[in-house]
Amino acid sequence: MESPLLFLLLLHTVITITAASAQPHSNITLNSSLTTAIAGARNPSWLSPSGDFAFGLLPLPTNSSLFLLAIWFANLPNTTTVVWTPNRDNPLPPNSSVILTSDGRLSLRDPSGTEVWNPGSSAASYAAMLDTGDFVLVASDHSVLWESFSDPTDTILPTQTLSPNSKLVAKLSEDDFSDGKFKLAVQPDGDLVFYLVAVPTGFQYNSYWTSGTNTSNSSLVFDVSGSIHLISPTKALLTTLTSATTKSTSDFYHRGTLDSDGVFRHYVHPKPSAIAGAAAEWVIMDFKPADICTNMITSLGSGVCGFNSYCTYDTNKKVVCQCPVGYTWIDPNRAYMGCKHTFTMPSCISGVQSEGFQMVRVDNINFWGNDYDRLNPMTEADCEQQCLEDCFCATAIYDGQNNCWKKKLPLSNGVKASNVNGTAFMKLGNYDNLPIVNVTKKRIWLLPGFLALGGSVLLNIIVLYLTYMFLRASKRKQRHQLKDSILGPNLKAFTYKELEEATKSFGEELGRGACGTVYKGYLGPELTGTPYLAVKKLRDFQPEIDKEFANEVKSICQTHHKNLVRLLGYCNQDTNRLLVYEYMSNGSLASFLFNGIRPPWEQRVGIILGIARGLRYLHEECSTQIIHCDIKPQNVLLDVNFVPRISDFGLAKLLKKDQTRTNTGIRGTKGYVAPEWFRNAGISAKVDVYSFGVMVLEILFCRRNVEKDMDEEKALLTFWVSDCYNDGRIDALVEGDEEAMADMGRVQRFVMVALWCVQEEPAMRPTMGQVTQMLEGAVAINPVPPV
């Protein structure tokens, strides 16, 4: 049904588009060109009149030696958000260029001058980057010959329209701009449909969301009020995809993006002139579909996540893909490829084969598809046993209603959530270090015999002893127990006995520090998706221990970032103070760096960027600023994908909202401690920046900050790097490191950032937000650091 209000709204949109096309701007004249800048320098671009959008050659976030022709938001200080790129599957090397030729063609060329892309339009008189985010080629009569809005990538902007047969294709991952697994298509029959597609061929699998409108030649319109509608040819409103009308487009940037997890999200970000107090970040206002993990079940393809992995959500409702127990990523940098088992599956050569294998139970999980047998009626225990004895069976799903579904590899459409009514029994190889609590085996109970031998006298003694111990423990608990409300209501409170059993009486030590010792534990995959956890046992009870314990809990329980270790729970019983964390399977950064084997260059770069982003979050993005105070390789852990996670917040300081400095005693570790600690002056977040700078150099060159056995000139890493930089001998720092030598532009940029971080005066050091931008190449490092 048509609406007069909608007609006026659309008329407003048309007027806005016309005005945008005719707005005053600096026309890009024929023979104008842009060429990729040297690594570390600001890349030249053509800006829109307001400076809101830029058109140019942008380095990839994961490899600054490769470039995309792109349009991006140019006024955002802390992030680079790309909205359009035509060469996403073919990034170009340095010295590539884009040219508006003398005959009016837009031409993207590699360093040899060979054309790799053009929009198929010629005879333009000029080009322009508009304030709407649209890049246009304009004829001599001022008509638009071509516009980027007509050839979108994964994003739609206000005033943009997707006509019939238009599509958006998601990125492969957050940092990989290649064509991904998901597509949004405006169908000629009027439906708006989301599809799962194959990588890299683009073969279209089943749809997983549809508007169901069926009105031919409809279009998707992003109106200036902040809503994205499907509109019929007669301008009738058919359906609203997303809406964020509470955030005006005059005060907020808007974008609608088909993200790499297959969800279309409507984001807003305050403009520089926006109302005070707005969060300076992209905020999700609306999205479709509401629950992609459970909504996307496909007969072909892997589902939302890769094969043999499962889909869950983080606290921002973003999809997180995980490998189940016994499996690991095929390629940690390409999660869409899925997971592989870490043991040898049974062979069917000898028929039934259960020796050497066991079943692990995982609740609230299902893998839809690849069923090859259904057993009914079947008990849960028999379902498990049937799969164990079947050489074809990799996993059995019991639905709680006497149905048992056997599944072969690869597993697809994996989902783990509280509303999933399924229990998986997953077949694993028998390993001594697998958690016995997860292994469901028939047990022979000896308790009746024991009781018969004990008799009533023994029972009375036991009861009296337990009563005495209970009363004694209660008194001690009243003296020493902290209030759980102080520690964090959303964390799991463990008993000491639970953690003692989980760690096998604290038998496997992972590491130790000034505050306590960390042990490996086994408690099932319910908390983290893996059976392992790390249990930090603080030193024997002393008055200051409670302060360190409460400090660490309060610091971490209010944070959530992929580069911080996640706190799962704690034990606050009597004088026992323990902290329970995610288990990081690749140990500490220190053991990874200083074991005599040089890690791959790109892995080192990724670790540096990850730590920087984690510290930026602590300093600038938390509701309460947190200064870590002890940044060093021993306090950075590596997860299964070698993603760095900052840990050990026992020395952290929390600042009030109106506080930038604090007075405290010297904290931290020799070699990483900023000079201001020794001046009895107030410290700020710049102490973490100093420590980070030292650690960047250690990661770059795979050596400790202090090496007493080296020549005197090389013994102190920061001094040696400073000398080499001052003498123009940075290549001496990476001698023998072929991967780093092939990327000297980035080596130089990272060294310059590190030298700025270790300046003696805190005021001269950049913030972690500025550090991250410089490392990513988003801003130039200017001036050069003083040495």
UniProtKB/TrEMBL annotation:
Places the protein is found: Membrane
Annotated Gene Ontology cellular component terms: membrane
Record field: catalytic activity: L-threonyl-[protein] + ATP = O-phospho-L-threonyl-[protein] + ADP + H(+); L-seryl-[protein] + ATP = O-phospho-L-seryl-[protein] + ADP + H(+)
Enzyme class: transferase
Bulb-type lectin domain mapped to chain residues: 31-150
CDD domains: B_lectin, PAN_AP_plant, STKc_IRAK
UniProt xrefs under Pfam families: B_lectin (PF01453), PK_Tyr_Ser-Thr (PF07714)
Residue ranges of coiled coil: none
Transmembrane spans: 445-471
One GO term (biological process): response to other organism
Family matches, as InterPro entries: Bulb-type_lectin_dom, Bulb-type_lectin_dom_sf, G-type_lectin_kinases/EP1-like, Kinase-like_dom_sf, Prot_kinase_dom, Ser-Thr/Tyr_kinase_cat_dom, Ser/Thr_kinase_AS, SRK-like_kinase
Membrane topology of this protein: Single-pass type I membrane protein
Domain of life: Eukaryota
Signal peptide positions on this chain: 1-22
Keyword annotations from UniProtKB, A to Z: ATP-binding, Disulfide bond, EGF-like domain, Glycoprotein, Kinase, Lectin, Membrane, Nucleotide-binding, Receptor, Serine/threonine-protein kinase, Signal, Transferase, Transmembrane, Transmembrane helix
Main location: membrane
UniProt GO molecular function: ATP binding; carbohydrate binding; protein serine kinase activity; protein serine/threonine kinase activity
Domain Protein kinase positions: 504-779
SUPFAM superfamilies registered for this protein in UniProt: alpha-D-mannose-specific plant lectins (SSF51110), Protein kinase-like (PK-like) (SSF56112)
E.C. no: 2.7.11.1
Similarity annotation: Belongs to the protein kinase superfamily. Ser/Thr protein kinase family.
Name listed for the protein in its UniProt record: Receptor-like serine/threonine-protein kinase
